[in-house]
Design goal:
single chain, alpha/beta, Fumarate Reductase Iron-sulfur Protein, Chain B, domain 2, FAD/NAD(P)-binding domain, 3 domains, 5-stranded parallel beta sheet, 18 helices, 16 strands, 33% helix
Length: 483
């Protein structure tokens, strides 16, 4: 068992490097890029924690994991205890340890990070979650007495799963409805195998099923069943909506209807859910990219996922086209770094103005315009301004538009009592996530627009507490208008 070191000794330990695949090898496969920490590396990294009396890292976590406690258990080499401690607040640690932007959340508020590199909290979370999975030990059974009350969760993404996990432990009968044929929402269709193996997601969901959560796939709420029917015909007493933001945005430039132009949603769904990454075992010929030139528009994690997939599918040249500079890119630094290692070219301060096709209606090139940065806009980032006369032609065969997503309109169409904003996002009371329809709560990207997995999970947990309060204490729905 590792010993507890003095603060100066802890600060002298460098942040441990997580082993990963060689870039020249991984750009030709879909195996996970990062291998994860070994036991030895995890214990050494955990010893870097200063065990602060007031652990500010917890404040930086949207689900308030007891970070100091689980890291202490790693130092003691009680890895299963550490996993159990994390799961008191996070039902999906193996997922969050891989895809959450810890550098902007818990690690950003780590005291050690003021003078040195912060403790690798996310990598430690992943380590203990993977260790627990490797043992094959089933999750602790739910011991709470059943309340005999039914709650419906719409959507099996991170917000829905987090809400369901908390509610099952509170004693509710929970059913999760998923529109697609596979569970996991954006975790399955939106994040590539090399960043989040689908087997990891399946195991996490299987554990929730063992706890008692019921899952139903191929149920489109708003079509198969309405929210009202969930209450009136199915007997649910409360509903949580966590359907995400799945309506793709386009640039509204000429030529976006050409063959070879994809939304990021369609592209990623074809690769991840329809398994184009296993071509020709799974026949998805429209995504054959051997030797083709691919441009991905956008600077977020979705854009990084799409462009790195393109390299793995055989693209000759794979470009990120972004209208601002690299400093303004919202993608994780690690994802940008990995993309560069794998041979992706970054065309900064560039915006497309037209897609150019051939006589058969197939994409062949893209007219681009160079930009320069002006004053800051509402996002706090400097606004890109076109440079007159800077147009040029970029030869491409495939374009992927990854500039964001809007809300799915199905539920609002059939449940007009749920108030939405001008972008179609559901309006909620921030403290409870309640909507303008009695008994209905919502959270995640359907409320905020595209955000992170862990923020969606935080919303799910907030909603679960409010649902419990509503069903236990009969909290009055004061108004159908939220200000």
């Amino acid at each position: 068992m590792a010993e507890f070191l003095k603060p100066k000794e802890r600060m002298a330990i460098p942040r441990q490097i997580m082993p990963e695949q060689d870039p020249l090898e991984r750009r030709n496969n879909f195996s996970e890029v990062n291998y994860g920490l070994t036991k030895e590396l995890a214990v050494i990294e955990a010893q870097r924690c200063l065990t602060c009396k007031t652990p500010t890292c917890i404040d930086g976590c949207p689900v308030n994991i007891k970070i100091d406690d689980f890291i202490k258990l790693i130092v003691e080499e009680d890895f299963l205890g550490a996993a159990k401690k994390i799961k008191e607040d996070n039902i999906l640690p193996a997922v969050c340890g891989r895809v959450c932007p810890q550098e902007e959340q818990c690690e950003k508020t780590c005291i050690l990070g003021k003078k040195y590199e912060p403790v690798a909290i996310g990598r430690l979370e992943r380590f203990v979650a993977d260790f627990e999975m490797s043992t094959g030990i089933d999750p602790n059974p739910v011991k709470t007495a059943r309340k005999g009350k039914k709650v419906a969760i719409v959507g099996s993404g991170p917000a829905g799963l987090s809400c369901a996990g908390d509610l099952i432990y509170m004693g509710y009968d929970v059913t999760v409805f998923e529109a697609l044929h596979e569970l996991g929402g954006v975790l399955v269709y939106g994040i590539p195998e090399f960043r989040l193996p689908k087997e990891i997601v399946r195991k996490e969901i299987d554990n929730m099923a063992k706890l008692g959560v019921t899952f139903e796939t191929d149920v489109v709420i708003g079509r198969t069943l309405t929210i009202d029917e969930l209450f009136e015909e199915e007997g649910f007493e409360s509903v949580f909506i966590g359907v995400g933001a799945g309506l793709p945005w386009f640039m509204n430039i000429p030529g976006e209807n050409l063959v070879g132009v994809y939304s990021a949603n369609e592209f990623l769904t074809r690769v991840n859910l329809m398994k184009a990454y296993r071509f020709p075992e799974y026949d998805m010929p429209m995504l054959e990219m051997k030797g083709k030139n691919v441009a991905v528009m956008g600077g977020g994690n979705t854009a990084m996922d799409a462009v790195r997939i393109s390299k793995r599918l055989g693209a000759g040249n794979a470009y990120i086209v972004y209208r601002r500079s690299e400093v303004e890119m919202p993608a994780r630094i690690e994802e940008v770094h990995h993309a560069k290692q794998e041979g992706v070219e970054f065309l900064m301060l560039t915006t497309p103005v037209e897609m150019i096709g051939d006589a058969d209606g197939c994409l062949r090139a893209m007219k681009c315009l160079k930009m320069e940065l002006g004053e800051a806009d509402d996002s706090g980032r400097r606004r890109p301004v076109p440079i007159e006369g800077s147009e040029y032609i970029l030869d491409i065969d495939v374009a992927v538009i990854a500039i964001g997503n809007g809300s799915n309109p199905l539920i609002q169409q059939t449940t007009p009592e749920i108030e939405v904003n001008k972008r179609g996002n559901i309006i909620v009371e921030a403290e409870s996530m309640r909507t303008t329809k009695k008994g209905v709560f919502a959270g995640g990207d359907i409320v905020t627009g595209g955000a992170t997995v862990i923020l969606a999970m935080g919303a799910g947990r907030t909603a679960a507490k409010a649902i419990d309060d509503y069903l236990t204490n009969g909290t009055e729905w004061v108004s159908n208008k939220i200000t």
